[in-house]
Amino acid sequence: MKDYFAIQWHITDYCDQRCKHCYIFSEGHPFLVTTPMDKLTHILQDILSLCDKINRLPYIYLTGGDPILHPNFWQLLELFHKHNVRFAIMGNPFHLTEENCKRMRDLGCVKYQVSLDGLEKTHDMFRKPGSFKATLKAIDTIKNSGMWVAVMSTVSKTNAKEIPELIELMDKLGVDVYAVGRYCPTNTHKAYDPNIHMAPLEYKAYMDSCYEKYEKLKDSKTTYQLKDHLWTLYLYEKGLFNPQKDLPNNAIIDGCNMGRNHITILPTGDVYACRRMDSKVGNIFENDLYTLWTSTKYDEYRQYDKFIKCNKCELKAYCRGCPSVTFGYTHNMYDADPQCWKEIKE
User: Fold this and answer.
1) 264 and 281 in contact (C-beta within 8 Å)?
2) 315-332: b or e for each residue (b if 16 or more CB lie within 10 Å)?
3) Considering the entire predicted model, what is its pTM?
4) Does the structure show a pLDDT above 60 at 252?
């Protein structure tokens, strides 16, 4: 079977919420963009062409804003169904009626992802009042439709102590997949905000509290995805991860998928190596995806020997932390990950 190639496709900036850590609104946004239907069709054909040329299967993560607010949302899903494209949706809980979820599932949506960024008070502070209860209700609706339900949390010092309780809540709710990603600063001033920033050992202590819950719930039907690549370091130090020895010098086995098997497309047609940082490589309406994917501009995100700290680490092929979080702190994705606690001997 061919490997999947992930496409995070933002089709509109319009959204019911103004989340405090949103990339669209956190630094102000002069106008909101929605990709028109003719351009959506163009992009889909280009995605299929790229995957054919690189011998991969497309896996589209449709998002926004909230993709269901796009005026041609259902028309696009019909096209996915026509081309037998595997896809998931990442959106808000507010429009997830039983009818809408069943229709998504019938058109081939495999998974719907919502967010919980803490317990009720904290989550509603990040998102908007009523969002927490709406999300819990939506989880049941998604499950009943036959789609997998995934929940994503964004962790910072603000909500880190609530994540272990959320882990247990996911088990009680019967969520299929739960993952936690680190807050990615949208400017360097926010990076070291004492209410947000977690020092390396503080972050490791947070991981300890999560690991305790994961061990307790290891027989849960919920898959607890260790999204943060620093989990590789964590498990390595516990003796639970053994890196392969005698790898070729530039071998990359795991870690960040940027430049390896992932692209992001914005409503403007801009193509990014990663949505979580300034990483524009071109525009799909000016160059096709294959041209962009094989360009020297994209190769900037495949220069693994440039990672200042990771290049000296035995886990380089598997970890490399999170370049986008690093970029948010330093504006240099190759710098040392700000939460990595590993000491590297020169």
Assistant:
1) no
2) bbbbbbbbbbbbbbbbee
3) 0.94
4) yes
